[in-house]
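Researcher: Sequence recovery benchmark, item below. Answer with residues only.
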């Protein structure tokens, strides 16, 4: 059996769209977080000297959101928000910032009911929808730190045990950086995609101009979504979850390695191939010069690993990769090999049944079954062979 690569790329595109947040859910999430933002903006915060702002970060902001897998089943969408208070760092504390946001949310009758217990960094509002597909909003209290790309760095609240402290972050700067890596592909595809989205969701978006940029998906974004879904399924075991590659590493490396390929298959193949070439770092600590010069994944002389935040090089996303005999590094490159095997080295699969089983294990049976006809069209009555019977026995006998 020979698989058409163009059809396979279309299948990957369709599969990624199934695990993406649909336009209706996206708009629901925007409406909810804007309402939360208005409530927080109207609050009073000791020592504040300006306006509070709230904005999305993470996969919702970057257009790489996928419906997560938890306990073997699809769970609610994660919507990450930053709540930036107009406070000066030397005139407040992480504890007071964290608790002011939590207290303000509790003042609202509905939000008080939706609010989870205090998390390490965020306050979480759990929304359950009637159609069974919910989402939760993670509200991250922060203040402007003023250091980093475009002076968008922030100090976020963090808590371990009973102690609060500041951590550095820069989600707006990271978003600008990612948009730059994605810009050419976005410009190439935005109008056509917005046109299609508006046609399918005309009750939500009355015109193409109303369709937000965040719903456009490039081959880079689709490749990241597929990688994250494969990650979620592969590490969906208690003994593996601790070593699962984190989304910020997947997104950062994929964006660095994306070569502006025009389709999902080519983008995924290019990214995975370049990641596999780094695997020698685990044993030998050395890779070919062209990759070493880029310096995306590095082994330091002391054996520790470094994958830098592109807008804050002082932040190391791989700061735990050396632990437990490099368990996370080994898990990462083992997963990259599995990506190659499960999603790229399958074009020679012998039968449609085996191909479907293979892809279902890699991406999930539900989404693969729904889109498999894109890859292998079913045999229709028109295509079925016609059988002509001559001199057939009569269905009766003489009496």
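Model:
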């Amino acid at each position: 059996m020979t698989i058409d690569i163009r059809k396979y790329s279309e299948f990957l595109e369709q599969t990624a769209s199934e695990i993406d947040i649909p336009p209706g859910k996206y708009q629901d999430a925007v409406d909810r977080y804007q309402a939360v933002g208005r409530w927080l903006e109207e609050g009073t915060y000791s020592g504040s000297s300006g306006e509070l702002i709230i904005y999305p970060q993470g996969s919702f902001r970057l257009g790489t959101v996928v419906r997560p897998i938890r306990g073997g089943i699809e769970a609610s969408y994660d919507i990450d928000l930053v709540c930036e208070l107009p406070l000066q760092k030397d005139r407040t504390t992480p504890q007071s910032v964290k608790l002011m946001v939590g207290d303000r949310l509790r003042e609202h009758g509905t939000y008080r009911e939706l609010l989870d217990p205090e998390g390490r960094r965020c306050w979480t509002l759990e929304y359950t929808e009637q159609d069974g597909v919910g989402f939760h909003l993670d509200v991250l209290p922060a203040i402007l730190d003023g250091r980093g790309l475009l002076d968008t760095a922030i100090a976020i609240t963090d808590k371990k045990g009973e102690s609060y402290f500041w951590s550095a972050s820069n989600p707006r700067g990271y978003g600008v950086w990612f948009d730059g890596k994605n810009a050419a592909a976005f410009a190439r595809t935005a109008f056509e995609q917005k046109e299609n989205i508006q046609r399918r969701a005309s009750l939500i978006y009355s015109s193409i101009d109303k369709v937000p940029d965040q719903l456009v998906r490039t081959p880079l974004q689709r490749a990241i979504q597929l990688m994250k879904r494969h990650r979620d399924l592969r590490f969906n075991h208690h003994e593996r979850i601790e070593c699962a590659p984190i989304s910020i590493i997947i997104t950062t490396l994929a964006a660095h390695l994306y070569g502006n390929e025009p389709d999902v298959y080519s983008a995924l193949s290019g990214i995975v191939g370049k990641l596999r070439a780094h695997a020698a770092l685990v044993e030998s600590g050395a890779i070919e010069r062209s990759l070493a010069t880029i310096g995306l994944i590095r082994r330091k002389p002391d054996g520790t690993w470094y994958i830098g935040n592109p807008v804050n090089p002082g932040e190391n996303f791989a700061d735990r990769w050396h632990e437990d005999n490099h368990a996370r590094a080994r898990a990462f490159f083992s997963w990259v090999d599995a990506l190659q095997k499960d999603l790229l080295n399958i074009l020679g699969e012998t039968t449609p049944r085996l191909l479907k089983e293979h892809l279902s294990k890699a991406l999930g049976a539900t989404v693969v079954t729904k889109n498999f006809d894109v890859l292998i069209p079913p045999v229709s009555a028109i295509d079925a062979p016609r059988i002509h019977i001559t001199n057939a026995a009569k269905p009766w006998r003489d009496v």
